[in-house]
Amino acid sequence: MADGLMRAGKVRTAASLYEIALRRASPLQRNAILVRQGLATYPHQRRVDLLGALEKLEGFGSHVFIGEGLATWHKTTPFLEDQRFVELAHKHASLLPIANWHWNLQTVLWALKRARGIIGDFVELGVFKGHTTIFAAEYLEFAAWDKRWHLYDTFEGIPDDQLDPGWAASNKATYSGTFSFEEVRDRFSAFPNIDVIKGRVPEVLEDSTPERIAFLHMDLNNSTAEIAALDALFDRLSPGGIIVFDDYGWATARAQHDAENQWFSQRGLEILALPTGQGLFIKPV
Ligand SMILES: C[S@@+](CC[C@H](N)C(=O)[O-])C[C@H]1O[C@@H](n2cnc3c(N)ncnc32)[C@H](O)[C@@H]1O
Questions:
Q1: Domain spanning 102-282 has what CATH number?
Q2: Nearest CA, atom 17, ligand 1
Q3: Of 12, 31, 141, 242, which is most buried, counting CB atoms within 10 Å of its CB?
Q4: Is cis: bond before 165, omega within 30 of 0?
Q5: Distance between CA atoms of 26 and 223, rounded to whole angstroms?
Q6: Strand partners of residue 243
Q7: Reduced to 3 states, what is the DSSP secondary structure of residue 280?
Q8: Ligand 1 within 6 A of 256 CB?
């Protein structure tokens, strides 16, 4: 019934029904309902297409997960069994215009936990409304960590001279004039060890960059700034330090993929492509 309401555009009522159904659901039913709940937070008609794809995949068997750009089935989804993960992902879902980002969040959490024992601070290049970092900072109770996290963004979208062809129009529509520095700074006010910094990459990195970096979340949606950031920051990444490239494998981000592959291969290094679209790199010790 709730699925029918989703199709009819009565998303709030559908979301309430999913909430009620969750209270009595078996573990398998719970997974299926949580995925639907995630689709219900997606403010696009596209949620109906994703719901249709979900139902088709459920015809193949159990354990189906679907979000924008990624579907899995017959696979364990450990994050759905983690109540804290589920609650925080749901709480912050509206900060990202993409449905069910759980697999991607899981990669970042894994990297952060590993990087805790590595010398250096954490850096995010490309913050938008702070979705990934606020989720992870709350999940990990980062305020108590002996690390700092530096978040850099223009807070005005991608500079015109850095827009890559192919997805310039959607990048402009999504990130120009849709969020502010003040809003994001306030979102992190409970974290004295997180700094929100306004400026353009790479220029802003000349003024303020940590000496050593343990974790870098690279998410600038353009190849010019990401390559310049690698030039500026790579030597500061500690041995064992981790880079998660958010856009690397998305077909729209092909310019980043190719430029980054070239940059790493020139140094005898390689990025691991993940099915989430992320690229993962761990600096050799
Ligand atoms: C995809 S969003 C980041 C999403 C964020 N990492 C998250 O997980 O929610 C890309 C961001 O990069 C920022 N950006 C792009 N080019 C930039 C540059 N050269 N300097 C600073 N920020 C930039 C945009 O303003 C936009 O907010």
A1: 3.40.50.150
A2: 158
A3: 242
A4: no
A5: 45
A6: 216, 281
A7: strand
A8: no
Output the average pLDDT for the chain: 96
Q: Is the pLDDT of residue 28 over 90?
A: no
Cα(156) to ligand 1 centroid in Å equals 9
Residue 126 CA: which ligand 1 atom is closest? 12
Q: Give the residue with greater pLDDT, 35 vs 62.
A: 35
Q: Is 201 in the pocket of ligand 1 (CB under 6 A)?
A: yes
Report the complex ipTM: 0.99
For 271, the 3-state DSSP assignment is: coil
All CATH 3.40.50.150 domain ranges of the chain, comma separated, are 102-282
Taking only the tens place, the pLDDT of each residue in 191-237 is 999 999 999 999 999 988 999 999 999 999 999 999 999 999 999 99
Cα–Cα distance between 10 and 106 in angstroms, integer?
30
Collapsed DSSP state (helix, strand, coil) of residue 105: helix
How far apart are the CA of 277 and the centre of ligand 1, in A?
A: 16
Which of 109-113, 168-172, 228-232, 272-276 comes out lowest in average pLDDT?
168-172
pLDDT of residue 27: 87
DSSP class per residue in 32-55: HHHHHHHHHT--STHHHHHHHHHH
- What's at 134, amino acid-wise? I
Counting ligand 1 atoms within 8 A of each CB, the residue from 122, 124, 153 with the most, and so the one to mutate, is: 153
Interhelix angle for 131-140 vs 83-92, to 10°? 150
* 8 Å CB contact between 18 and 40: yes
What does the block give as tokens for 45? Answer: 């008609």
Q: Which atom of ligand 1 is nearest to the CA of 129?
A: 9
